[in-house]
Design a protein that fits this description.
Layout lengths: L1 H34 L3 E3 L1 E16 L2 E5 L4 E5 L5 E3 L4 E7 L8 H4 L1 E4 L4 E4 L11 H6 L2 H5 L11 E2 L4 E6 L6 E5 L11 E6 L2 E12 L2 E6 L12 E18 L3 E4 L2 E8 L2 E6 L2 E4 L3 E4 L7 E3 L17
Antiparallel strand pairs: 1-21, 2-11, 2-15, 3-10, 4-6, 4-9, 5-8, 6-7, 8-10, 11-14, 12-13, 12-15, 13-14, 15-20, 16-17, 17-18, 19-20
Length: 310
């Protein structure tokens, strides 16, 4: 009789022990899983669709030559606006006898056209022109190498001492783009240079080399100094909205959504993706500032978690 009485107690305490161990294990498991969750904050931003392309610029440029051999003294700073006939520099002839009054032998160098005067030149002023971009063989034109300029301030007769750029004539450029099928002659494309984004008209498509010739609505600052430079082609309009990392997306059944943190609980919410790039997605109707899980997996919904891992 006594042995039979012990069995119910044994099973009772055994069941209690199993429940305690299971409860502790479950709490530990939940805490462990919650501790491995990483969050990121949904923030307002912009998805940009841009591609870096090489640009070769062409302007109406005129070389300024030294009328005789001597030492050149420039007037004013680089890139200053000048009028036709205005003095850009003074040249003191070589071999001038000491003691002779400078005003009697120095010769003024004046501008033969109005525009912006630059002391630097690359020898391509008469080669890489707007007209040549349209009419000449681009393979030959774009492989022209700059001509080394005389260093220092002493020049020989006929050497280039600078150039004048007509900044009233719109800048043109050849953009090296591999996929030009969707680009149309006569249409515009968006190009970003520095902090400005400009619409440029497509004048010509080229298969060899691959790319397009475009005309900007005005002279582009910096295009005369740095003839070849990288620009950004905006191949699709940007999208503004609430952004989250792409890694936050999770498919639950047939629904695409994200795990978000709300009142201490991880919840799954179905979402609609408006736009994306390589790293971020723009989500419709998701509040800015809400934490989202960037390490999603099954079994997270309903877990109690904190957001210290943002």
């Amino acid at each position: 009789m006594e042995g039979r009485r012990r069995k119910p107690y044994f099973w009772f305490w055994g069941l209690i022990f199993i429940m305690l161990v299971g409860g502790v294990g479950w709490c530990y498991r939940s805490s462990f899983i919650a501790g491995t969750i990483k969050f990121a904050t949904a923030e307002t931003g912009t998805i940009n669709h841009e591609r870096i392309v090489a640009a070769t610029f062409a302007n109406q440029e005129l070389s300024v030559l030294a009328p005789l051999s001597g030492k050149v003294e420039y007037i004013g700073g680089d890139g200053r606006r000048i009028r036709r006939g205005e003095q850009v520099a003074t040249i003191k002839p070589e071999g001038a006898a000491p003691g002779i009054k400078a005003s009697g032998i120095n010769q003024s160098i004046t501008a033969s056209m109005g525009g912006l005067f630059f002391q630097q030149s690359d020898g391509l002023e008469s080669i890489l022109t707007s007209e040549n971009l349209i009419s000449m063989d681009l393979n030959k034109l774009l492989t022209q190498n700059p001509v080394a300029k005389t260093t220092g301030d002493t020049f020989q007769t006929g050497e280039v001492i600078g150039k004048i750029v007509n900044n009233l004539i719109p800048t043109m450029a050849f953009l090296e783009i591999s996929d030009i099928e969707e680009l149309t002659v006569g249409k515009t494309m968006r190009v970003t240079m520095g902090k400005q984004t400009i619409s440029a008209k497509i004048l010509r498509k080229s298969d060899q080399p691959k790319g397009v010739i475009v005309q900007f609505p005005y002279y582009i600052d910096g295009s005369a100094v740095q003839r070849r430079q990288d620009v950004s082609w905006v191949f699709r309009p940007p999208t503004n909205g609430v952004l989250i990392p792409k890694s936050a997306l999770w498919t639950k059944g047939e629904e695409l959504g994200v795990f978000l943190w709300s009142e201490g609980i991880v919840q799954f919410r179905k979402v609609k993706v408006l736009d994306e790039d390589d790293n971020m997605v723009c989500i419709e109707n998701l509040p800015s500032g809400i934490p989202v899980v960037i390490t999603p997996r099954d079994g997270l919904e309903g877990l109690v978690a904190n957001v210290k891992n943002i």
